[in-house]
Amino acid sequence: MLQERRLNSRGEQYVVGPTGTPLTLRDLPPAETNRWVIRRKAEVVAAVRGGLISLEDALTKYRLTAEEFIAWQQAIDKWGMQGLRTTRIQSYRD
């Protein structure tokens, strides 16, 4: 489900982030992120879904596997942002 591309007042491309606020490339988590809280995971998923960053670029930038990213997407689709809680993922697995 790709979102429509939009430009903010500075001319930067953005998508609507997981909290409903605009999300630009500058707002994405830093490449060296080691602590993946719910919001950061959801921001990366929203950025890929909205076309702000390609899946390949996200995997490379954040040193993620495709399986890990897909798990994040599926957790959001099935349980919303709370599905991204690492302590809850095992409980949610079918």
Automatic annotation (TrEMBL):
GO molecular function, one term: sequence-specific DNA binding
Segments traversing the membrane: none
Superkingdom assignment: Bacteria
UniProt cross-references to Pfam families, sorted A to Z: DUF1153
Name this polypeptide is given: DUF1153 domain-containing protein
Annotated organism of origin: Brevundimonas bullata
